[in-house]
Amino acid sequence: MRNIIRLTESELVNLVKRVIKEEKNMLSESATINGVKVDASGGGLSTIAKGVANKYSVSVKCGKSAFGVFVPVYTGQISLSSLWDVKDGGIGGKDNTGKVFTIPATKAATLVSQMVSGVSSIKTEGEGTIAGITGSCYVTLKKKI
User: Fold this and answer.
1) Which helix or strand (DSSP H or E) is residue 9 part of?
2) Mean pLDDT of 84-94
């Protein structure tokens, strides 16, 4: 049997505000991999583990291979606007241009492990499709001092 619940206007407003607040908490500026929080609040990436903070800038070289030659479309530093945990245990993110990406759990765990260890330069790569064009992206994380 269904129950009908009647709400006053102020109760409805408070309910909507609460839902919006909870949504903001779900899509935050951080993700957690193997118990380590990865934060994107400064535009780059940072971790804090065992009381040690490591911060990294993120540079990319994205493009497409044509006839065996890599043709870069964008090369340079990017800024990350948000990160979140994805279902497979990896990281989802969005950059300053609105591009959304995911990092699978195994690759995310390797990257976070290197960040926590304080590796000065971390390189990785991925493939994806943006605006119907499939290509590759080579990513370099540089430790900030």
Assistant:
1) helix 9-26
2) 87
- Which residue has 């908490």 as its token pair? 25
pLDDT confidence of 26, banded at 50, 70, 90? low
Pairwise CA distance, residues 68 & 9, whole Å:
63
**Residue 90: both structure tokens together:** 């990896």
| 76-87: average pLDDT | 88
Q: What is the pLDDT of residues 62-72, one digit of tens each?
A: 888 889 898 88
Amino acid in position 19: V
Is 139 in contact with 123 (CB distance < 8 Å)? yes
**What mean pLDDT do residues 91-117 have?**
88
- Please report, to the nearest 10 degrees, the dihedral formed by the alpha carbons of residues 20, 102, 104, 19 taken in order: 0
In this prediction the pTM is 0.73
Q: What is the 3-state secondary structure (H, E, C) of 103-122?
A: ECHHHHHHHHHHHHHCCCEE
| DSSP assignments along 118-140, one per residue | T-SEEEEEEEEEETTEEEEEEEE
User: Encoding tokens for residue 9?
Assistant: 């206007």
Q: Which residue has the tokens 């043709």?
A: 71
Separation CA 138–CA 142 (nearest Å): 13
